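Input.
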Amino acid sequence: MFKIKVADFIVEIDNKYQFITQICKDYLYVGDGCDFRVSSTDEEIEQQQIKLSREFPNASEEFAEATCIYREVCLRLPERDAFVMHCATIGVGDKAYAFTARSGTGKSTHIRLWKQLLGEKVYVINGDKPIVRLIDGELYAYGTPWCGKEMWQTNTRAKLDGLCFLQRAEKNFITDISKQEAATLIMKQILIPNDPLAVSKTFELVDRMINKTKLYRLGCNISIEAAEIAYNAMCGGKNED
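Output.
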């Protein structure tokens, strides 16, 4: 059993395997109390391992437990004004910018282009599953231990300023996107809880996000121009370096 501090929540994890401890090493917390506790039963781990084996034939019990724990954390967030979204999120200064799309579209490639363009000006908050949390009327993107195969994450937070929906295109372009269309696309990238109250809370948080965050559609290829166009539109200025 150990504790982590993620999205400024203290979470106690009752684990069976050490793998989850290694995943969470940058978020370990030593102190009294916790906001909530999570664990997984042997049956849940076994079922998750079977499910994972369809994509990862060598998925271990340790990996399955880490996935179960992640899911349990996700399900406990809406009641605390937070949720996990499948996206890559970067920070530029004190602001966060999230990029979401179907798996395989090129989120990681696009983030590499931003890093190539801006160097140390940009940092990756999370490469796959950041937590978005509402605090005092503002939305913040937080790093989490669950960050995709690239393992891109930083234990930090930044105010969410822009949300961009990626699609592949031969010619780079960026446009605004309507709130209605954004809501439809976001629902495909978040975990919808089973509990009706949690579902209602999640929808409320998504509504808050699309009404407080700048929304974009980015058609992009793998050229540095894609990052330049996105940066100029989302961050409001050209790179001076």
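The radius of gyration is 18 Å.
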